[in-house]
Amino acid sequence: MNIVLSGIKPTGIPTLGNYLGALKNFVRLQNSMTDYEFFVFVADLHAITTPQDPKTLKQNIKNVAALYLACGLNPERLVLFIQSEVNAHIKLGYAMQSICYMGELERMTQYKDKAAKQTQGITSALFTYPALMAADILLYDAKYVPVGDDQKQHLELTRDLAIRFNNRYGETFVIPEPLIPKKGARIMDLQDPSKKMDKSSDNEKGCIFLLEPINSIKKKIKSAVTDLETCVRYDKEKKPGISNLMTIYSTITELSFAEIEAKYVGKGYGDFKKDLAEIVACEVGKVQENFNRIINSQELESILNQGKERANLIANRKIDKIFKKIGLGR
């Protein structure tokens, strides 16, 4: 069984960056990798590493599940489930903590970044969540994991833990490989292109949410930071703002940067932004239309129930084998 696996935290509405860097790419992979089974999950256990309002979290879990389908994933070749509904994730997460070293967790860049932003006390779960992330992947013997640049470090740790466990207890886990998209892997903030587009950003003008009003999306694109030049040209170092917008344009239309540059010879940023605003609005509009059809449907509940059953079947078999190798239980 060949598995591709991915998950998204329900800590808010996914952004255009999540869509172009992960969801849209996942649909593309599903269409091209026809011999693989696709497991996608709502990573709700990861969401509670920071405080969440229970009612909001419950709605966000449902929203993320619906958005997976709204973005175009084929439910016939999909196992869609909610992480906390598969108890084996917690069990293996603890087992991964037992073979993971403090120094490895302290080196995680995402932990350092998130800890720096914390206004309240830093939870132990925020520190150890890479061990749970490793469990999410290894539990299903996933062969490939689509990741952005910011997740490569976590996947490397997952690989290290899998190898360490295999060496200690015998061949148990498949060593997962990353799938990193060539374009759209990292969409930057529209107001500060030096940092990734993030739903927790202080300035909402820099972030486009998949479920926000279309007029608001167009306005954010048109007010995005560029530079003092007017030439539409890709140069990530010298022209990060327009380069970020070109990445969005390219990822949606599949035009190369050279083709986009040629299209706007003699035109300014105003024309480019106007066109991009319509392109993004059309793309996101389709997702919103699908989402509104799916969110309260019996179809979503049925798909999640089937996913829960399938994920539990595989995960429980795996965790039983793992615990037996470790020597746990009777």
Key features of this structure:
3-stranded parallel β-sheet, two-stranded parallel sheet, about 325 residues, mainly alpha, Tyrosyl-Transfer RNA Synthetase, Rossmann fold
Calculate the terminal CA-CA distance, rounded to whole Å. Answer: 30 Å
- Sketch the topology as an H/E string, one letter per element: EHEHHEHHHHEHEHHHHH
Please summarize the sheet with the most strands. Answer: 3 strands, parallel
| Helix fraction by DSSP (H/I, runs of at least 4) | 40-55%
Structural description of this entry:
- The structure is a single chain.
- By secondary structure, the protein is mostly helical.
- Helix 4 runs parallel beside helix 13.
- The protein is globular, with a radius of gyration of 21 Å.
- It has 13 helices and five strands.
- The longest helix has 29 residues.
- 39% of the residues are buried.
- The strands form two sheets. The protein has a three-stranded parallel β-sheet with strand order 1-2-3. It has a two-stranded parallel sheet with strand order 4-5.
- It folds into two domains: 207 residues, HUPs (Rossmann fold); 89 residues, Tyrosyl-Transfer RNA Synthetase.
